[in-house]
Amino acid sequence: MTVADLCSRLDLTAPDGSLADTVIRQPSPLSHSVSGDISFLASIRHVSALETAKGSACFVTEAVVDEVAARNIIPIVCKSPKYELSRATALLVSPSETAPNISSTANIHPSVHIGPGVVIGDNVKIGPNSVITHAVIGNNVSIGACTVIGGDGFGVSFGPNGEIFPVPHVGRVTIGDNVRLGSNVCIDRGQLGDTVISESCQIDNLVQIGHNCVLERGCLLAGRVGLSGSCHIGEGVMMGGSVGLADHITIGARAKLAAFAGVMQDVPAGEFWSGIPAMPIRDHMKIVAQAKRALRK
What we know:
This protein has 2 domains: 3-92, Udp-n-acetylmuramoylalanyl-d-glutamate--2,6- Diaminopimelate Ligase, Chain: A, domain 1 (3-Layer(aba) Sandwich), CATH 3.40.1390.10; 101-283, Hexapeptide repeat proteins (UDP N-Acetylglucosamine Acyltransferase, domain 1, 3 Solenoid), CATH 2.160.10. The protein is 13% helix and 27% strand. It has helices at residues 3-9, 65-69, 81-92, 281-296; strands at residues 26-27, 37-41, 57-60, 74-77, 101-102, 107-108, 113-114, 119-120, 125-126, 131-132, 135-137, 142-143, 148-151, 156-158, 164-166, 173-175, 180-181, 186-188, 195-197, 202-203, 208-209, 214-215, 220-221, 226-227, 232-233, 238-239, 244-245, 250-251, 256-257, 262-263, 272-274, 279-280. The protein is globular. The protein has 4 helices and 32 strands. By secondary structure, it is an alpha/beta fold.
């Protein structure tokens, strides 16, 4: 729909002149936006996303109007940009009605639910009572019982008067070849864009992977690991049981996280971290030793 139509549906003021006739096709993350996309920018702290932005329009606060306009992106001024993009997403995106495309060599338990638009490759095995929606699954993938792939992630936006609006998730989950998922794994679809599990990842039972996470090739996640949204996990990373990550964390390639590590900052490649909050394991062990000595006194 046009910018004018969209603003009218959202009770917002449309820009003047020919800008109001600009056609909007889909919502997108600002940094990855292209012509026809609409995004949001709420704070000057995230203005760096404009460096690669090529979208047509953006919901903004007054504080960032000039920066957005300078990139030839139409600013739509509002009090709560994330809230307005959530509402716009609900208007712009319709559920898929495409029939699933499932390889004849896939071994799928009859109790499994497969949603519209799902693609499943060769020699995939899916255990009982699993639910697969909004996903593209490669070859030689094993999925345990009661696993849910492609459900909505957890996210809300707040309107100018405190209204709560669930953030629509319109992306997918993509799973590469030779991936193993245990039982009771939940992998949320992307909010905008995809959640990605790259080839040869091995994921244990009871693991939660939030929306828009990316796991590079060959990651190993033990039971009860929890990844908040938009984490990037480098190639060959290993996580012990019950590791937890805050959102937007980057773990460098071949880093290791000990069991129960609570990760609240980025971890450099190749390092071994532990503890809550997580830190290099040598630092953590020194703190533990000092605490033990203090208790003996």
